[in-house]
Task: structure prediction
Amino acid sequence: MYEPIRTKSVHTPADHADDFPHRSREEELDIQLAGHLAALLAVTDELSLGEAGDRIAEQVARLRGAPPARHAGRTDAPAPALHHRAHALAGRALVVAASRADTAVAILAAERMDAHTAALAAAPAPTRLVGAH
Result:
């Protein structure tokens, strides 16, 4: 009644599925964490926070096995916007560091979050003109 299927299904695994490298979950988390820290380093360098940038660069180098490129360019972004961005990036790094149980990076990320929160609290509130939109 039914004729057997003679062609391979598209759902059948490839004959050479082991030809490409697979990364472990730990390796994927290392890559993700290094990316978050590299982005945080760029913002930290833009804020001219040298010592904090050096500590972040050490962790990026440990995760990647090579020192990161340091941010040389500057944007015209105001400092509060940079502190907000850095706080968010440090938060992302903290989440990944906690999931991979990297205590050193988790502590560093939490310290950076606290530092950026303090910088935002110390910044003068923007003045608003009456009638300005």
